[in-house]
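Collaborator request log, item 7. Partner lab (contact: R.S.) asked for a structural prediction of AbrB/MazE/SpoVT family DNA-binding domain-containing protein to inform their binding assays.
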Amino acid sequence: MQISKWGNSLAVRLPAELVRELGLKEGDRIELHPDARGLAVSRAERPEEILAGLRRFRGRLPAEARLSRDEANAR
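Returned to partner:
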């Protein structure tokens, strides 16, 4: 990866192979993490991916994770 000047900031130029591997598009957010080999790059979830996960959940909890009103109000 190459670091370049972009206006008053610095920018990291990602290789095309990494962009394809991560499925990156313009505007995506990435995260850089320390790795044994240097830095690892990961793509942050897109808003539509987060919403899709929430729609799948729809407030359903396993029976053992539910609270009863009596238990919640017990003193």
